[in-house]
Amino acid sequence: MIKQNITEYNNVWVFIEHNKGKVELVSLQLLSKAKEIARDLHCDVCAFTVGDNVKPLENEVAEYGAKKFYIIENSALKDYRTEPWRDSISHLISKNKPAVVLIGATALGRDLAGTVATVLKAGLTADTTALDIDPETKNLLMTRPTFGGNLMATIFCPDNRPQMSTVRPGVFEAIKNPSKMEIIKDKFSITEDEIVKKIIEKVQTGEDKLNLGFYDIIVAGGKGMGKKENFKLLENLANVLGGTWAVSRQAVQMGWAHHTRQVGQTGQTVHPKIYIAAGISGAIQHLAGMKSSDIIVAINTDDQAPIFEIATYGIVGDALKVLPKLTKTFKGKLKI
């Protein structure tokens, strides 16, 4: 990798992922985190995106603190396809030279970030769970689980820009911080005839659409639940509390639940107000996906389980007996 003149690069950029005219929550979460990073770097937060008609997104983007919103509008960019989005976004970044580029680690974001980083010859840290600024060097410190989730590695890129990172939904909280925002329209010439890939049909199944990050209350179960049929206990409690249920990686590997309900390094990252972990030991892989929850309630027969180290409240007991009692109690309290 060729060493660059990094003094030419400035500002923190956040990619605005959008679907059917709505900004994806992870983009708003990243704008909030970018505000903290920009404060340490004494620079501005800028948003950027491409698409067919993206200017209407400006009000929502401005509510979360972006000072500038760089956009490219082109009918050929209406639906996501790797190559045209890669080329148009690489054009924006190369022209404006941001110091930091943050992209949500969604299916779209993961595909996009890798190919853009390749074009820009930039480093990319995937699936980060923490972002900080080194007070001395001002490098972006990007922390992510590694070696199967057994260790946490902090990665930085001292000689090249932009510093790129993908962050999973739910790692940071979306906090409104309205600002007066400038819209900067750019142009990128591409026609439909120039794009080899064609979209014939878009199909999205119910399970594939599940986003655990939208829920304030999550009741999760792991290997300690014993068998697939017992996961109904999670669902019952979640329904009473107005939340949803989730699982650990081991539960998915055993075929007890669909992978879209998995919380952890290889699943979704969540930040609910209440996270109930039933029969989950607390492997670092799982903790990486839920440790930022406001309140964590752990239920486990092993009083030495690692989950108790981060739990707000701990219940040493059999989840199969505790969960029905919690469901009954909350039904009575909530008069359901």
Structural description of this entry:
The structure is a single chain. The chain has 2 domains: 6-194, HUPs (Rossmann fold); 207-334, TPP-binding domain (Rossmann fold, 3-Layer(aba) Sandwich), CATH 3.40.50.1220. The protein is 28% helix and 24% strand. It contains 9 helices and 17 strands. The protein has helices at 25-41, 58-62, 82-96, 107-120, 232-241, 249-253, 284-290, 307-310, 319-334, and strands at residues 12-15, 18-19, 22-23, 45-51, 68-73, 100-104, 124-128, 130-133, 140-146, 151-155, 163-167, 182-186, 217-221, 244-247, 274-278, 295-300, 313-316. A 7-stranded parallel β-sheet has the order 7-11-6-1-4-5-12, sandwiched between helices. Helix 3 (82-96) crosses helix 4 and helix 5 runs parallel beside helix 9 (319-334).
Supply Rg: 21 Å
Structural class: alpha/beta
The level of helicity is 25-40%
Shape from CA axes? globular
CATH-derived architecture of the largest domain = 3-Layer(aba) Sandwich
The fold-level CATH name of the largest domain is: Rossmann fold
The overall pLDDT average reads 91
Q: What's the count of strands?
A: 17
Cα distance spanning the termini: 61 Å
Beta-strand fraction estimate: 15-25%
CATH top level class name of the largest domain: Alpha Beta
How would you concisely characterize the structure shown here?
The protein has helices spanning about 25-40, 60, 80-95, 105-120, 230-240, 250-255, 285-290, 305-310, 320-335, and strands at about 10-15, 20, 20-25, 45-50, 70-75, 100-105, 125-130, 130-135, 140-145, 150-155, 165, 180-185, 215-220, 245, 275-280, 295-300, 315. It is α/β, with parallel strands linked by helices and about 325 residues long. It has a seven-stranded parallel β-sheet with strand order 7-11-6-1-4-5-12, with helices on both faces. The protein has a five-stranded parallel β-sheet with strand order 14-13-15-16-17. A three-stranded antiparallel β-sheet has the order 8-9-10.
